[in-house]
Amino acid sequence: MDSRSAFPMKEKIVLSGIHKSFGSKVILSGLDFSVNEGEILCVIGKSGTGKSVTLKLLVGILAPERGEIFVDGMSYTGASAPQRAAIESKYGILFQGAALFDSMNIYDNVAFGLRRKAASEDEIARAVPELLELVGLRGIEKKIPSELSGGMQKRVGLARAIALQPEIMLYDEPTTGVDPITGGAVDRLIMKMRSVYKITSVVVTHDIKSACRIADRVIMIYEGRVIFTGDPDALMRSSDPIVRQFVEGKADGPIKVI
Ligand SMILES: Nc1ncnc2c1ncn2[C@@H]1O[C@H](COP(=O)(O)OP(=O)(O)OP(=O)(O)O)[C@@H](O)[C@H]1O
Ligand SMILES: [Mg+2]
Known about the structure:
CATH superfamily of the largest domain: P-loop containing nucleotide triphosphate hydrolases
Number of strands: 10
Bound molecules: adenosine-5'-triphosphate, magnesium ion
Oligomer: single chain
Radius of gyration: 18 Å
Number of domains: 2
CATH topology of the largest domain: Rossmann fold
CATH class of the largest domain: Alpha Beta
Structural class: alpha/beta
Strand order of the largest sheet: 6-7-8-3-9-10
Distance between the termini: 43 Å
Shape: globular
């Protein structure tokens, strides 16, 4: 059975006509895409095309110069402070690199968001081991981040993000810098988050294999816009020379390689 068709096509996130520059450097120039509720959307594209910037726009760390972002039909751009807070609370994010707090042990790292939300220490004491169990890292509460491998740190980052029960998870390069086996485990966790919690997921990745394994749909960003949208089969079959060059990792082609 193809579980991919089992998800209703309600749009959870819509980005419309997004423009974003830094000084004279145009990064996004008319970016349009949407993410359906409960789907895993993978975002691919060359380094520096604005994938991480797109995630930062989604969570409101950056603001676009033009264009609108809607979450559950609510416009982010014109939102009041409380509305923005409500939208922001829907998101969990796993940043590029795990971004753990080096000086805190794993327990306190995972508890961080819960404490900010004023959860009781009893609740936290129950939640942290469960969250670590969920990401396959039971019993590491007392360790500090530098004692863990990169893959383990990513999984702790995921436990920390999931603690706040987000409706939407954003993953920035979750499998970069980990071996293929650990990468496969991270992929399975992303799929588990979706199947257990029905989380809508946006996964930025360079890893085409991983994208094909987990994505319902893939978009490719090129020169500030989306130049491909489709499922993994369509991605692999695409005859667009830009898509082909990226998928095959060739130096020759329309994409300039620095
Ligand atoms: N806060 C910022 N100030 C100035 N320039 C920025 C800022 N954030 C990103 N940029 C620039 O915007 C461009 C896109 O950056 P972004 O981090 O989104 O790329 P990316 O697609 O995620 O690349 P990678 O695959 O290497 O992670 C880059 O040229 C980057 O230098
Ligand atoms: Mg990036």
